[in-house]
Design brief:
Strand content: 15-25%
CATH topology: Rossmann fold
Strand order of the largest sheet: 1-2-4-3-5-6-7-8-9
Pfam families: Abhydrolase_1
Number of helices: 12
Order of helices and strands: EEEHEHEHEHHHHHHEHEHHE
Organism: Streptomyces cadmiisoli
GO molecular function, one term: monoacylglycerol lipase activity
Helix content: 25-40%
Largest sheet: 9 strands, mixed
InterPro entries: AB_hydrolase_1, AB_hydrolase_fold, AB_hydrolase_sf
GO biological process, one term: acylglycerol catabolic process
CATH architecture: 3-Layer(aba) Sandwich
Length: 337
Amino acid sequence: MSSTELPYVPASNVLPKVAPVRVADGERLRSVELPGITLKIRSRPPAREGLPPALYVHGLGGSSQNWSLLMQLLDADVDCEAIDLPGFGDSPPPDDGDYSINGHARAVVRYLDAAGRGPVHLFGNSLGGAVTTRVAAVRPDLVRTLTLVSPALPELLIQRSAVPTALLGVPGVVPLFSRLTTGWTAEQRVRGVVTLCYGDPGQVTPDGFSNAVQEMERRLQLPYFWDAMARSARGIVNAYTLGGQHGLWRQAERVLAPTLLVYGGRDQLVRHRMAHKAARSFRDARLLTIPDAGHVAMMEYPKAVATAFRDLLSETEPGGAASGTATERADTTSTGD
C-alpha cells in the first residue's frame, strides 16, 4: 500500500442525516439486503404483466436516477429496474470495500440471483458498461441482451478531457482534490459534470439541473462519497491494465447476448473511434452513434436510445415491438435524432 493511500475503513452504520433521494413520479425505490451489501433498487411498474425484465447499471459518480428518462420510455416494453451500485446513489458502501469492476459485477450478479429475475435485458453506461460486459461474459445465463452506452472499455490513449477522471484512481489525489475544492458549491460541481458529460449542456432543463444540484448536496454529506469515487475510478484503471482472459476486450469477445452499442460523437470521456473496435469485438453487435451526444446518451437523447433498443427487442423477443430502424449491423454507423 502506498504511503499516501489510507487503508479502507468500513463506514459507520450511523450516517449523518441527509435529504431523501429523489424518486420521480411513477417510480419506487426499495432496499435489498444481501450478505455484505445493501442495494437500493429503483423501478417503474410495467405497463402490463408479463413483460421481460430489464436492469440498468449507472456509471462512475452516477446513480439509478440516470436511467429515469429511458425507463419511462420503455415501461411498455420491459419491466424496468435500475440499481444503485454499492457506495453510489442511496446504496451504502460494501462491507469489504471492494469497488473493483469485479466487485461491482458481483453485486449485480448477486442481486439477479437473489431476485430470480434473470435472464434480463441488461443496460450499462460508462463504468456500468464495463461492469455489465463482465457480467454478460461470466454469467450468460443472466443476460438476454446487452445495451452499452459509452462503455468504459480499455483505450490505449485516453482523451485529455478524461485524464482528471482517471487521476481520481491515483492514491492521494482525491484527498488533495477535496481540499482544493472545499469552497466549490454543489452548483459549480454539477455545472462541471454537465459540461464534461453532455454533448450540449444546454439540453439540461432548469428542473433537471436543480434536481442534480440537490442530489450533489446530498452526496457531499455522505462520509464515504469521495472514497467510493476514488476506489471505483481505481477499479476502472486497474481493469484497463488486465490482460489475458480477464481483460475486458477479451471478455467482450465472449459475450453471447445480442448487443446494442451506443456512442456519442461529442463524448469527452470515451473516444468515439472506440465504437468500431467495440462493434468488431462483440459477437452479435449493432451500433448506434449519435453525433451530438456526449457521454450519457440515455439522458441526452433517450428517445433515440429507446428506439434502438426496441429494434433490438423486436429481434430477440417474441412479439417484440418493432419500430423505425435506428441501428445498423456492426459494420455500419447510424445517427439518432
